[in-house]
C-alpha cells in the first residue's frame, strides 16, 4: 500500500513509520506545520510542531530512506482546533482539543489530501489497535493501557478508520523507546509532549483570558444562592474544579467546594459539595459509530468520560438521535463539551462501540 506517515518529530510517530516501512509499504513521511509561529510551540516537554520537531522528523525520514515533506496546516488548525477550543470555553463547555485535532486535522484534512494524492492510508503513532472484523474496522484499546488513545480516536468514522494505520497498538511505550534506539533514531529519548500543544506554558486560564478578555461574574453557592466571590469569566473554570476558585470565605461546614455548573449567559459559576458532582445520566450529541454500526436498542457497555479515567459500567441507548448513557455508579466531574466513549463490556471492555459529545448531565 501507499502509506502517508504523519511524523510529529517524536519517538512514537518515528517508530510507527519505521514499522510501516518494514512491513513493505511504500511510505512517505509528512510533518504537519500547525503553527504560524512554529518557534513558539515547545517549552521542554510541552507543546509541539516547532522547527526543531520538523528537523527531528526529517532526520528520521532520512534514516528510513523515505521521501519527506512539510505541509502547512496552520490556518486549518487555528480555525478547527484553537478557535473551537476558545469558543467552547466561552460557551461554558470543556473541550478536548486532542480529540478535535484527530477528527478535523489528522483524519479529515490530512486524510482527504492523502487520498486525493493517491495514498491508501495514513499511519500515525497513536496507541490504539485497529482490526477488521466481518469487513468492518474495529477500534480497540491499546495493549499499553497507560498510553491508550482510543478515547481521543473514538470520534473517527468507519470510512476514516478504513484508511488508518496504528502500528503501535500492540506495544508498550518502554519497548517503543528501546526499538527506536536499536534503529538508531535520535528521538529515542526525546520527552513526550503533554498538555495542550498550543499552550506551551500550560497556563490555560491565561491563554483564554488573553483571547476572550474579562467577562466578570459571580461565584454562587448552589445550596443557598449566596454570592461567594467574583471571577473574570466562566472560561476560567471547568466542572469538578476545586482549586483556584477565588472564594472569599470558607464553607460553614469547613469542607471544600467544587465547580458544579457554568452559566455563560448570567456569568454565574455554581459551586457546592463534592457529593453534588455525582452524575447518573449523560446526554451526548453527534453520536459516531467507528465500526459503522449504531446501537440497536439499549445495550450494556463501559462508559468513559475523560481521556484517562472516569469509567463505569453503564447502559446506553439512542433516544431521539441523542446518546443517553446511564452509568451504574455515579461519575464525578463530567463536563459538557467532553466526549463520552462507549466500549463493549466483554472481553475486557476494549472495543469502541461509539462516542458522542456531552451536552447535558443529570
Automatic annotation (TrEMBL):
Which molecular function term from Gene Ontology is one that the record holds? Answer: ATP binding
List the active site.
101 (nucleophile), 197 (cysteine persulfide intermediate)
Q: EC number(s) on record?
A: 2.8.1.13
Q: Which HAMAP family match?
A: tRNA_thiouridyl_MnmA
- Spans annotated as Interaction with tRNA: 147-149
Its recorded name reads tRNA-specific 2-thiouridylase MnmA
Instruction: Name the GO terms of the biological process aspect.
Output: tRNA wobble position uridine thiolation
Question: Per UniProt, where does ATP bind?
Answer: 6-13, 32, 125
